[in-house]
What we know:
mainly alpha
Amino acid sequence: MSKYSWTGEIMDILKIFNDGGFVMYPLLLCSVLIWAVFIDKLKKLLALKNQTTLIIHQGKNLIMDNKIHEAKGLCHNMDFWIKAPYLEIFSEETQDASKEKKESRISRRLEAMKMELNRANWLLATIAAVAPFLGLLGTVTGIIRSFESIANSGKSGFSVIAPGLAEALITTAFGIIVAIVALIIFNYFQMRLKNLMITYKMGLEDLIDELKGC
């Protein structure tokens, strides 16, 4: 595709944005926030997956070889919210506790980790709820603009009301799109986090069983 066609497409997008009126600016801000949260959460979930897989598999091998100190040191350079549940299984309080108390102590650490990973979820949920209403606001302002055009021109032809209708339709569509994207990302990360948390917890329980035999 030539440089001129790319330039033409960009100009078309800017024209659509301008035709949407002032409501497009908060919707644009919502879009930027969505992708900022997406990138941040994606990085954290990838770190969680890679680091937990490492410490569970290598930790199990080291514990089986009775290298407890080396197993503890596996997570030395990892994020605290990831390594805290892992280090908990090596604490004296956890090892001396009953099975129920062990699971309770591990669960508390996992809940703290979950809170860290869910920290920006409220933003995605809020955008998913608010974006359609911003689009509806644009619909109202677009219709108002159409009536003002009729009043100012004294005519009621399509060319008179077209700018207002364009604003109404563009903001409505953009608001719905932003809400759908936010909701999809929210649900995706909720599902991914739930699966990773279950896998991590099961891995920690396996390590506790291995520690019993040491």
